[in-house]
C-alpha cells in the first residue's frame, strides 16, 4: 500500500516558530512517531511525505536517524492541505491503485489502524477512520445563536488514515479545482462528487496535534505505551 503523509503545514494554532511536526514529543520530533507507526505497519510499502522544501533538511535527518527501511519520497507541499494532497497524488508511483492519506500531525496512530484501513480499501473505493462523537454538537449562527442540534448517533469525528481508489481520488481533486471547493479532508471531495465513503473504526487516542495542550496529551499517551 502507498501512503501519503501531508506534513507541509505551518502549525499556526500551535504558536511555534516552525512546522509543529518538528517539535519534540517524548524526545523525538512529532513526525518521527507518525513515521515509526507507518514503518511498523506491514501493509505499507511506500511512504510519500508532502512537505515544504525549506523543511527537507530536517525531514531528511529525521528519516536517517530512524533508519527506516521502507521507500520514502519527499514531495513539495502546497499552500493548503488540499493542495498538498493534490501534489502527493501526482507524485505517486504509476502502479499505485489505492492510497492511504494520513496527517503527519496524527502521530498517535497505531500500525494496526494503518493495516485495518489497507485491508478495507481493497474492497471499497473510499474510507475514513472515524469515532463516534461524545459531545452533543450544536449548529450555531454568526450571532452565537443555536440553530439546531443534530442527532448525536449520526455524528462521527473524522480522523485519518483515509483511503481511496487513486484514479477516483485524482478525479475528485481535479473536480474540486474546477468547482473551487475548499475542504479540510479528502473524503469531503469524494462526497461532493457523489461517491461513497465508508467508516472504519478509528482510535480514541488518534488525536490530531493542533495546540500546545494536544502536545502535552500526546506526551502522556506515548509515555503509557509499551
Ligand atoms: N498540511 C499540509 N499542507 C498544508 C497545510 C497542512 O500538508 N498547506 C498538513 C499538516 O502538516 C498536518 C495536516 O495537513 O499534518 C493537518 O493540518 P493541520 O493540523 O491544520 O496542520 P497545520 O496546517 O500545520 O496547522 P494550523 O492549521 O494550525 O496552521
Ligand atoms: Mg491547517
Automatic annotation (TrEMBL):
It comes from the Bacteria. GO terms for molecular function: 2-C-methyl-D-erythritol 4-phosphate cytidylyltransferase activity. The record marks 13, 20 as: Transition state stabilizer. Keywords: Isoprene biosynthesis, Nucleotidyltransferase, Transferase. Catalyzes the formation of 4-diphosphocytidyl-2-C-methyl-D-erythritol from CTP and 2-C-methyl-D-erythritol 4-phosphate (MEP). Belongs to the IspD/TarI cytidylyltransferase family. IspD subfamily. It holds the Pfam family IspD. Its EC number is 2.7.7.60. It catalyses: 2-C-methyl-D-erythritol 4-phosphate + CTP + H(+) = 4-CDP-2-C-methyl-D-erythritol + diphosphate. This is 2-C-methyl-D-erythritol 4-phosphate cytidylyltransferase. It is an enzyme of class 2 (transferase). The record marks 152, 208 as: Positions MEP for the nucleophilic attack. NCBIfam families: ispD. SUPFAM superfamilies: Nucleotide-diphospho-sugar transferases. Pathway: Isoprenoid biosynthesis; isopentenyl diphosphate biosynthesis via DXP pathway; isopentenyl diphosphate from 1-deoxy-D-xylulose 5-phosphate: step 2/6.
